[in-house]
What does this fold into?
Amino acid sequence: MRSSSIFRSVVIAGLAMAVGVLSACGAYEPGASSSSGATPSPNVSTITPAQPASPSPIETNTPQAGDVTLPASCTSIYSAAMLASLNASIAPMNDSAVTMLSTQIVPALEVLQSGIPTLRCTWGGPSEKGIATNVSIVSSSQASTVQQALESNGFACTAADGGTVCGIETKSVTQQDQIVANGEEHLLRGNAWISTRWITTFPAGYTADIAATLWQ
It folds into this structure.
């Protein structure tokens, strides 16, 4: 009987030690409750994503009454009578050796070379006689830039041919002491800009004929 009592005492002592060990492990368990019973929240930083920058406004042109489309070919910008006259007096058309530009005014030239839709037409060969014309599609701001550049360079601008015509004529002397007349004439109307530079010859009514043909 005594040995049985000793055995029960040993078992009870062993259970007490086991409970104590489990209690000690629970005190250091990660994520254990605090004395208040609440679980600590992790320290998390909130990052607000950057807002994308607003795109710059792009100029768009709403078609207006009187706007034209770019002609398909140079023969389609003249009346039959003007085309016949040019072929008779200053052929050929579109000689690849002709490099004359339709304007020498830098701001206008920058607009012309900016990638705007353009049809280039020339008359005559490389000589002291010829015509270079561009029919271009421009925005209202580009048309304004061109007109301001022309006026600031001494062009006379007036209302004509359904829009604004700006022109200038100058004379120069060749090495053979010959006087050569040259000039430019421009029409700004709706979404179109007709620019022409000429040397020695410029048929009367040239720009007006193109306007009447495009806006017929």
Observations:
- The first helix runs from residue 2 to 27.
